[in-house]
Design brief:
By secondary structure, the chain is α+β, with helices and mostly antiparallel strands. α1 runs antiparallel to α2 and α16 packs across α17. The termini are far apart. Bound molecules: 2-(butylsulfanyl)adenosine. 2-(butylsulfanyl)adenosine (IVH) binds next to β3, β8 and β13.
Length: about 700
């Protein structure tokens, strides 16, 4: 290698080129080390690459890319740990940002349970630890499995690493249920974090950004002795599968975990009053700085476990708990420019290019400006001094402008009338019939004719939560797309054949940055994804308002691609097909309309057909297929006396039923309470099975 220039002497262009080269080399070595267990260079040589990248990024902060290896702390040894399907999903939490949100939460709980003024509901309040959640499975008192949360449904098996934590017992005494999954948060204390970074500095390794990243990096080490040296800790606050209940309330259950030898947080309280919950929040916030670990809010949970069971969950968060977040950290900086990014759905998002500044321990140089109304409302102009806010891992936002520091002649932002893409398609704000207002978002009207949208669509298609094609990241899509090698999803699956048959010139394996091995790996990864699960496919299609969560709900409800496509194609015109979509818990009007529109567009149907010709779509598992009402369409009418309408609906959906608002030939069961009128009449005419509320409970077993 030729002698490297001193970092201090590099021009910006040279630095930019080096950042690209170093990042790609480091990534290559990371892959060799973590995925193939075959490092190609010595540790010292690897460290030298990283140190040079850090030095360049230090001098040129604007060149720090979000995907730089220096921004990723610790290894991501994907595929290195075995996968673990959680016996019960590991849920996330909804957020409350102010007192009113907390009052609303309590109101929702009370309404759902149908409680009267006289009924009391107790809630627990405890700190929300800013770490990583983990699940520990004990069978007959023996720790048999420890796993990360992963996507909530499937995590990674990190038993050996978790066993190194002092807070995690390997054996529980005889008092524990035969089967017990303990859940809680792994974290690193401030003292251990400071000591770890001091050690990293000494040995010339990059420092961790914050204790959470340090804990994550430490927990996912391949060698458990490294995890052991990192002094991680664990607070137990929840449970998964159990052979018998721990207690009747949240509070008592956590105390039992404490008695079984787990560390539990000492700050937990129980109360039936909103004011006391808010006092606990303010008290914990006040003590935040004196705690030896990071917290980012307070979690409130319904105390009675029978109430929790009735409340159940919506999407992936329980109805019975909420996280009351602390206000985000703030900093002041200069807005150097406003750039427009075109997203996959054509949304033009203004992005603030900022003078780099540290907020909450992380250097920030970009912030979203949302849309032009937001810029106008806050009167944000280029050159302004702005107040920036960043909460947790959320994208930083500009809160306000310090107008007293505005430079002379700073011009207000002018929205783009045409898309920045080469087609220069006109942009527009749509009229939203549902809200009766203009959408805040300006969009390129070119749809998939707009190359920016096409390209973003492909990036999404290949991304981790969609087809997850290793080696076909944003950069590769960008290059293949620009060259015309991959213009739509089906092209990904014909690439290997076209390359083999000489249509790709020069062939990929002869190109700079590629070789036989990496091309072989890429084609193998593509081949490996020719068979795809329904939920992933639905997410990958990039239908507006159909993200990962909705895709999963649709997949579970329809189970097969054919069933879904038939319903979706009919949805634009056929009221019953529309009802079918709307009957799925979590699928609303907006998503239903968007699905109808997508499948009414011949261009989309052709694109989907070409993709279908290349792949095999696996059926999804239906929810609770063994429940007597799975797959059935239920209508509730009249007054329900044992539960609220919301609760009845949620219960039916959790058993795999679809709940509809109107009776038709597709209705399987009508549950009719007192006062039922026209729906009951119609059901009788159509010969639909009709049940009283008691008969319904008997059918579903309680
Ligand atoms: S309860 C069923 N309690 O916050 C609800 N979560 O934003 C399960 N977390 O994934 C979570 N401290 O990793 C709960 N005291 C606490 C928590 C806590 C931290 C994390 C947890 C969860 C995330 C949701």
């Amino acid at each position: 290698m030729s002698a490297l220039k001193d970092v201090a002497d590099l021009t910006t262009d040279e630095a930019d080129a080096e950042v690209t080269r170093l990042s790609s080399e480091i990534r290559k070595h990371d892959r060799a080390y973590y995925q193939n267990d075959a490092p190609k260079i010595s540790d010292a040589a690897y460290d030298a690459l990283r140190l040079r990248l850090i030095a360049i990024e230090d001098r040129f902060p604007l060149l720090v890319r979000p995907d730089s290896p220096t921004q990723k702390v610790g290894a991501t040894p994907s595929g290195k740990f075995g996968e673990v399907r959680h016996a019960r999903p590991m849920l996330s939490l909804g957020n409350a940002f102010n007192d009113e949100d907390v009052a609303d939460f309590i109101g929702r709980v009370r309404r759902f349970l149908g409680l009267t003024e006289a009924d009391d509901v107790q809630f627990t309040a405890e700190p929300k630890i800013d770490g990583l959640s983990a699940s520990l499975r004990y069978e007959k008192g023996e720790l048999v499995l420890g796993a990360t949360r992963g996507d909530g449904g499937t995590g990674e098996n990190i038993t050996a690493n978790l066993k190194t934590l002092n807070d995690i017992p390997h054996r529980l005494d005889g008092d524990a249920p035969d089967l017990l999954e303990v859940r809680g948060e792994v974290y690193m204390s401030h003292a251990d974090f400071a000591a770890l970074n001091a050690r990293q500095r000494e040995i010339g390794k990059p420092e961790y950004k914050n204790p959470r990243n340090a804990a994550a990096g430490s927990l996912r080490q391949i060698d458990p002795s490294i995890t052991a040296s990192r002094s991680l800790q664990f607070f137990a606050y929840a449970w998964g599968e159990l052979s018998g209940p721990l207690a009747e309330t949240q509070y008592e259950s956590v105390q039992r975990l404490g008695a079984l030898g787990f560390t539990i947080n000492p700050e937990m309280i129980v109360t039936g009053k909103l004011e006391t919950l808010l006092e606990a929040y303010r008290g914990i916030e006040k003590r935040r700085a004196t705690l030896d670990y990071d917290i980012d809010g307070v979690v409130y949970k319904v105390d009675r476990l029978d109430y929790q069971a009735r409340l159940g969950q919506v999407a992936r968060a329980p109805r019975w708990a909420i996280a009351h977040k602390f206000p985000a950290e703030r900093a002041t900086t200069i807005l150097n420019d406003i750039e427009i990014q075109v997203g996959r759905t054509g949304a033009l998002t203004p992005v603030a290019k900022l003078e780099p500044v540290t907020v909450g321990g992380v250097v920030v140089s970009n912030a979203t400006l949302h849309n032009e109304d937001e810029i106008a409302r806050k009167d944000i102009r280029i050159g302004d001094t702005v107040v920036l806010q960043r909460a947790g891992d959320v994208i930083p936002q500009i809160v306000e402008v310090i107008t007293s520091e505005r430079p002379e002649g700073a011009q207000p932002f002018e929205p783009l009338k045409t898309c920045p893409c080469p087609l220069e398609t006109p942009t527009a704000r749509e009229f939203n019939e549902r809200t009766g207002k203009m959408d805040a978002v300006r969009r390129c009207t070119g749809e998939l004719a707009c190359p920016f949208q096409k390209k973003e669509h492909l990036k999404h298609f290949s991304s981790r939560k969609a087809f997850d094609i290793e080696g076909l990241g944003e950069k590769q899509i960008e290059a293949f797309f620009e060259e015309g090698l991959v213009r739509e999803p089906a092209d990904i699956f014909t690439l290997a054949m076209r390359n083999r048959e000489g249509e790709v010139q020069p062939p990929l394996q002869e190109r700079e940055g590629w070789g036989e091995t990496s091309v072989g790996n890429l084609f193998a990864a593509i081949e490996g994804r020719r068979t795809i699960g329904l939920a992933r496919l639905l997410n990958a299609l990039g239908i507006r308002h159909v993200g990962e969560g909705t895709a999963r709900l649709l997949a579970r409800a329809y189970t097969s691609w054919t069933a879904f496509k038939t319903a979706a194609t009919a949805a634009a015109e056929d009221g019953e097909a529309r009802e079918g979509l709307l009957g799925i818990d979590g699928v609303g009007e907006t998503a239903t309309d968007a699905i109808g529109r997508y499948f009414a567009e011949p261009h989309n149907l052709e694109l989907v057909q070409r993709l279908e010709d290349q792949i095999t779509i696996e059926d999804a598992e239906a929810v609770a297929a063994d429940s007597p009402v799975a797959g059935k369409t239920i209508v509730f009418t009249g007054t329900l006396e044992r539960v609220t309408r919301d609760e009845a609906k949620a219960k039916a959906q959790s058993l795999g039923a679809k709940v509809s608002g109107s009776v038709s030939a597709k209705t399987d069961i009508l549950v009719a309470g007192p006062g039922a009128g026209s729906k009951l009449k119609k059901a009788t005419e159509l010969g639909v099975q009709t049940l009283t509320e008691d008969e319904w409970f008997e059918l579903i077993g309680g």
